[in-house]
Amino acid sequence: MKRFRFGWYGDGGLGEEMIQAILSGRKSATSCPAYDPEDADIKAGDALSLVDKHGRERARLVVVVVELRPFGKFDDALARCEGVTLAELKDKMNFANGRNIRDDEEMRVVYFRVAQAGPERRP
């Protein structure tokens, strides 16, 4: 099963915040630059192991849809699926990538559902 990692050392708690949003049902999508090779092969129907920055499995997810869209086309509907406002989503994307994302940059958006929540294990 492919690992779907949220968080990295030095993320200021962002990864855990996203994991908690997924487990509570507030977050059902995530996005990254389309060129990012880590999740480039994910497709609808894939089962994923949601892991934290420590490598601990937190849940099992199923991919519902994968789409490509320019960063400038991010909208309120996508932000709701990401569990934040549009302004927060854009700020978090810039923080997570260590730079400002250009409006014309193609992004990969992965929509998912929780198939099985794991035991509550916090770092």
Provide an overview of this structure.
It is globular, with a radius of gyration of 14 Å. The protein has a five-stranded mixed sheet, covered by helices on one side. The protein has one domain (2-117): Sulfate adenylyltransferase. It has three helices and five strands. It has 123 residues and is an alpha+beta fold. The protein has helices at residues 14-24, 76-81, 86-97; strands spanning 2-5, 29-33, 47-51, 57-70, 106-117. The mean pLDDT is 90.
What's the quick description here?
The protein is of the alpha+beta class. About 25% of the residues lie in helices and about 35% in strands. The chain has helices at about 15-25, 75-80, 85-95, and strands spanning about 1-5, 30-35, 45-50, 55-70, 105-115.
Largest sheet descriptor: 5 strands, mixed
Residue share in helix: 10-25%
CATH superfamily: Sulfate adenylyltransferase
Total of domains = 1
Separation of the first and last Cα atoms: 22 Å
Q: Which segments are poorly predicted (pLDDT under 50) over 5 or more consecutive residues?
A: none
Structural class: alpha+beta
Q: Any guess at the CATH architecture?
A: Roll
Strand order in the largest sheet: 1-3-4-5-2
Tell me the total number of β-strands: 5
